[in-house]
Amino acid sequence: MALQNDRVGLPASRSTQAEDVDGLTIGHRLMEAQEYELALKAYYLSASELGLNADVLSAIGSANLKLNRLNQSERILRTAVKQDPEFVPAWNNLGVVLMRLGKVAEAHDVFRLAFGLDNGNSIEIRDNLRLAEQQLQNIVVPEQSDANFRLVRRGNGRYLLLGNN
């Protein structure tokens, strides 16, 4: 008789892929697939599993941003950066929300902070800072639009781009 794991009927040597994937990972994949409502639900599930840490709050805030719930997103992302003042993705994503809300000066400061915390390693954050600086200085950039600002998230210890398409 084969050994059983804690799931009835599954041999100890086999596991399902779903066991290895948490709510955050599922949510990130749904965000990439532009399924923002489903991603938000996955992030809420993750909150019930992991608690409302900065990573989960940042993800929830980013999904709300994609759903154009800007005030809700801002509030959640501000909570995330209060919980972890060094969590770069939350700072960057807060900057994106602030830009969308027309709070350019504050967004510029937030992007500058995110860029500094990241030691300048993220191209996406550098580009966001540059765009905010151009808007702050009233420099007209032909291709500039809200879609040019990029959300970032953490995955496997690095920052990954969430598509804005």
Any overview of this molecule?
Helices cover 56% and strands 6% of the residues. The protein has 165 residues and is mainly alpha-helical. The longest helix is centred in the N-terminal third of the chain and has 15 residues, at 36-50. The chain is globular. Mean pLDDT is 81; it is low at 1-18, 140-145 and 155-165.
Protein traits:
7 helices, about 160 residues, disordered N terminus, disordered C terminus, mainly alpha, two-stranded antiparallel ribbon
* Secondary-structure class: mainly alpha
Write down how many β-strands occur, each being a DSSP E stretch of 2 or more residues.
2
The string of secondary-structure elements, in order, is HHHHHHHEE
Helix count from the secondary structure assignment: 7
End-to-end Cα distance: 52 Å
Taking all Cα atoms into account, the compactness measure Rg is: 18 Å
User: Mean pLDDT, as a whole number?
Assistant: 81
> Taking strands numbered 1, 2, ... along the chain, how are they ordered across the largest sheet?
1-2
Largest sheet geometry: 2 strands, antiparallel
Strand content: 5-15%
Q: Helical amount among residues, as a percent range? A: 55-70%
Unreliably modeled segments: 1-18, 140-145, 155-165
**C-alpha geometry:** globular
Question: How would you sum up this structure in a few lines?
Answer:
The protein has 165 residues and is mostly helical.
Layout of secondary structure:
Blueprint: H1 23-32, H2 36-50, H3 54-66, H4 70-83, H5 88-100, H6 104-117, H7 123-136, E1 151-155, E2 158-162
Antiparallel strand pairs: 1-2
